[in-house]
Fold this protein.
Amino acid sequence: MNILVYLVPLALGLGLTGLFAFLWALRSGQFSDVDGAALRVLSDDDLHDAGTTKD
Amino acid sequence: MTESLDLSLYAKPMADGTLGMELAVEGIACGGCIGRIERAVRSVPGVTEARLNFTNRRLHVTWSPGLAEPAAILRALEDGGYHGHPFVPMRAEQQEAAEARRLTRCLAVAGFAAMNIMLLSVSVWSGNVTDITPETRDFFHWASALIALPAAAYAGRPFFTSAWRALKSRSLNMDVPISLGVILALGMSLVETANHAEHAYFDSAIMLLFFLLVGRALDHAMRRKTRAVAGNLAALKAENAHRLVSDELVSVPSAALKAGDRVLVKPGERVSADGIVLGGKSDLDESLITGETARRNVASGATVYAGSMNYSGALTLKVTAAGGAALIDEIEKLLEKAASAKSRAMRLADRASRVYAPVVHLTAALTLAGWLIAGASVHDAIITAIAVLIITCPCALALAIPAVQVVASGALFRSNVILNAGDAIERLAETDTVVFDKTGTLTLPEPRVVNTAALDPELLQMAARLALSSRHPLAVVLSREATTRVPFDDAVEEPGQGVRAHINGIDTRLGSPQFCDVIAPNTSQASTVCFRHGKRFAVIAIAQKLRPDAVDVVNALRGRGLDLQILSGDHLEAVAPVARALDIEHWQGGLKPAEKIARIEALRASGRRVLMVGDGINDAPSLAAAHVSLSPISAADVTQAQADAVFLGEKLRPVLDAVIVARRARTLMTQNLWLAAIYNAVAVPVAVAGAVTPLIAALAMSGSSLLVTLNAMRANGGPR
């Protein structure tokens, strides 16, 4: 049962990592435009730009 | 005469030395607009960054100082078919954004803690019925305490601070029993853990916080969205003033006016700042300021006040007080009022929960005393009391009405209806009679070309392009039909007659019948403009046009059992065809404002609940007299201020949607009140009897809140 002494804090640590990752994402404004993010992924802006520079 | 636009008021210095501005953008239809708008604005020389927030339709632009002209950014948007309206983000909005982030952080912490504690708790529960050693159990309990105490201290703050504020002002709100329940459960669990007991209640305290925070965060997010739309709308409605700078007109936002500035106020505009008339004569409607409806004649030397409507002539003013900042405050205050205005049902629910809060505490105290007298151990009595405290929290009751209100007003926003009054939804739901004004309400606010189908498209396009060169009101209407917005080079306007130009070497004229040598049929229904291109000619009819979906909407409203009427100030011959087209039996024309009110009063007296839809200044009093009122966004400011809700766009559909959403919302409110009442009626006796542990209580209580909230979400769906 001694293994629990390591495993429980380890699990907590992993959970905390997730929590801090979320708080960081929140702070850096990744949730400020949720609808826009869903649509931006569809735009081929980058490809288009690369194409025009080659011409 | 082109008037330059000065936007320096809106430009804010950024951290990296550039200037930044926020724009509310109109006309965003789909995801493709994001790229188009950002590319268009970035291509303006000097612009360093443009980022569109699709969720709240706002564009953030930064440019290097001195390089780009801010007005060029607006022009770039304009060329792409969008309209940008600069605005200063409001204080209230910024505060709410901070509050939303705080709630989300609390929610994240509570969620993390709840998951981990449940993991440990489930192990203990299953261990208790099998072979867990007391040492392991203690270890798990201490680990839970280690997670729960800091998490509760952090995530519980929204509740603790609100409860503390209430207690300080010697009152009780729903956060008091919540805070008390959480603190008691945590304290009790610590004692239990120290005594190596089999049960601890860290899980219930944290779960309670987590579910309550879910409800609050949802509620807050919806409110914020509503507020953002209202803020954009305020930007759309923000007025510009014409400042005279060494006899040149510069268009500046009213907020940028300073004492001593000279300002031109054109007829039909509102006076943008307090001032003294330097030149010109006019009549002012000061009803917004004084309530006096008779117009006041003003001439040189007279003092005028911001907010009065200028009727007949142009005035030059010397600004005495910077009215601008005050005006922004005013809008902010109005929005504040709209957001905090509580409906009757909401006030009722508020009062109920205020009365109910002491009952919660009393029931818990009585349960504790009762069990102690009945001979239960102190420990069991306290546990039961905590369960009662948690389960009797009327959170579901407190959420029942506001949750529906918030979702319904969100649904109305998506249908292009913006609420002015908090209780408009309930009053809309009660409507049984709809009274329409004609001009600008059933018809489009501006006249249109009505015989496009009968005209040769090529001729119409030519005529419309030629019309671009004229300032005549009919020409302005006609020019909207032009697909190429480039005027002909040699177009000449002949005052009082029309415009002429040579197109492909052929003499082309647009204007009066004589000017164009065309015999025009005489109609009283429409104004006509004649067009001649060599031997070919056209007679273009311009008239008020019904809103594109008026017939469908009117039929749908009738299908919902509403009685429809038209009360118009326009003459009978103009109203009759509209009433016929819409198949509305009860209609009256040529009514004065007082007669309109009398009609509406008569309807009310016969027990009808009247929804008045109108836009003119003459409609303002009848809107106030009706049970509930709607106004198109094109309406006069005074009228809009009077209406319970405002709708946007060319279609009449929002009127129908408003009624549908309001009726659905009313049904849901009733359902929610029943759900909450039944929950409390069932759960409380069971908890008092001691058959519920704090965890079950927390789950039941937050479950009922979630149920009510989810039910409220249904105000969103349904047929549109």
In short: The mean pLDDT of chain A is 79.
